[in-house]
Amino acid sequence: MILGIDPGLAHCGWAIIKPNGDSNQLVSCGCVETKKGEDFAKRLAQIYNQIKELCRRYKIEELAVESIFFAKNMKTAINIAQVIGTVKVAAQNSKTTVFEYTPLQVKMAITGYGRADKKQITKMIGESLEKKEVIGNNHAADAAAIALTHIFTSLAG
C-alpha cells in the first residue's frame, strides 16, 4: 500500500493506493483539516497523529509526499516544510519508507507534460485508477497523483 500526501497546514490531503499490476486501486482518501488560529504545534500534532494512524491501519509500506519546489510566500513555505517534516516523522515512527517528488515530477509522471493543469491531472488520475474514479476533494486528488507518481516511478526505475 502506498500513501500519497499533499502537504498543507490547513488541508493535508492523503490517498491510499494499492498497486495491482496494470491497474491501481484507490483504497481510501481524505484530508486532515486543522483550524486556523489554533496553536501551531497542536495543528502539527493533529497531522502527525492522523498520518501515523493511517500508516498503522492500512499497513502502509511506502509514503510519497510532494516537496516544496516554489512558494510565493515565505511563511507559507516554512509552514509547509514543517508539515512535511511532521509527515516524515510519522512515517519513520511507523517504519514506513518516505519518498519525495516535486510538482514537476508529479505532472510529468501523471500526464507526461510538465505544464499540465489541474483538469488534465484530475482526468489522468481517474484513468489510472482501477474503477476510473473521480476524487472530489482537490487535496485528496493531489495526494492520489503523488502516490501514483511513486508507483509509476518505481515501475520505471
TrEMBL record:
Root EC class: hydrolase
Protein keywords: Cytoplasm, DNA damage, DNA recombination, DNA repair, DNA-binding, Endonuclease, Hydrolase, Magnesium, Metal-binding, Nuclease
Enzyme nomenclature, EC number: 3.1.21.10
Chain segments annotated as transmembrane: none
Cross-referenced Gene3D superfamilies: Ribonuclease H-like superfamily/Ribonuclease H
Catalysed transformations (reactions): Endonucleolytic cleavage at a junction such as a reciprocal single-stranded crossover between two homologous DNA duplexes (Holliday junction)
Cofactors named for this entry: Mg(2+)
Cellular component GO terms, alphabetical: cytoplasm; Holliday junction resolvase complex
GO molecular function: crossover junction DNA endonuclease activity; DNA binding; magnesium ion binding
Family: Belongs to the RuvC family.
Protein name as catalogued: Crossover junction endodeoxyribonuclease RuvC
Gene of this entry: ruvC
